[in-house]
Fold these 2 entries.
Entry 1:
Amino acid sequence: MQRLFLVGFMGCGKSSFGRRLAARLGWEFVDTDAEVERRAGMSVAEIFAVHGEERFRELEREVVDELCVTDGALSRQIVALGGGTVCRQGVMERLNGAGTTVYLRMPPSRLVRRMSAAGRARRPKIAGMDDAELRAFIENALPEREKWYKKANFVVECGGASDGSVLRMLLQHIDNQNIK
Ligand code: S3P
């Protein structure tokens, strides 16, 4: 299967690692948030503000549905999923059937450090939060969300690993699984 799905909490680097990985492998890079924005013709923050979260979740579902029916044999893709996309019955199972899933697991302190004020502002669920508020939000949401993330085929423990080593771990997984 030539498709890798990256899942995990907001800020863990699904898009940035995904883009670097795709560039390294010469594969296509797909970001579900960007795909939702393209279809709606507005940013994620605007979708939440104008139509509400439920509409955003519907658009996410449509994007996932289409990704999963595309013929995997033809698509060499790295797909970065939004942090909440997989936190619903059946989504991880669908992704596991359509490719290889990897959970980028990162401690709350590092997630907080990785999300700048601008990065928070474009994510409506955490917009305007200071470090303490964001940390409390993550510590509250992560245990529930990990129930979904941990259904991934692999967990990459990012812990204190440098970005370079996380990228190497991801490449290693691709090599070991023969998904090249
Ligand atoms: C969300 C995560 C965001 C984006 C939206 C909601 C979430 O994606 O889909 O702001 O509920 O976790 P990233 O995980 O790429 O930040």
Entry 2:
Amino acid sequence: MDLKKVFENNESWIKKQLAISENYFDDLGKGQKPELLYVGCSDSRVTAEDLMGLGPGEVFVHRNIANMVISIDLNVMSVVNYAVDHLKVNHIVVCGHYGCGGVKAAMQSADLGILNPWLRNIRDVYRIHKLELNSIECEEKRYDRLVELNVKEQCVNLIKTAAVQKAYRDRGLTVHGWVFDVHTGKLIDLKIDFEKYLHDIMEIYHLD
Ligand code: CO
């Protein structure tokens, strides 16, 4: 890839945005007020704004390998706290995707070095849902299901945070689990029952 092309693309993009509104960048420079926090995978095919049809300023984005919400990861926890406490987003989305390399790696027996502790969290998801997953004979279907269950468990991890519990109580913030199908481009809502999960875990994880 010729990186010069990137800067040419940038110039054309500026022209395009200014053609829509001549104040476009003046407005953008004034600040952000996104209503949505998106936690997705770093996979180059799963572009947050493009697949949702949203533009600059509309979504606060965090991406990492396999869209994980890990309680001791200072990066994701800082993003969640900033988005919830300061930007006051009212929706948090965890978006996984079929064909996720991180989830696939966690299904295999291999020493992947520094990735081991990261992928361990996906192996934990497998262990929690072992009965269901092992009953699926087709490996491809089992892989797809682990992608979905991983999204669900990362939503639960969000619900375990004090920031989310407090924002739910104070202003009705909700958490959503979605999957992007890279084969069709379709965004699928897993219809995570946020209130049920919140109720289920509160006995042990109630913080606020
Ligand atoms: Co992925």
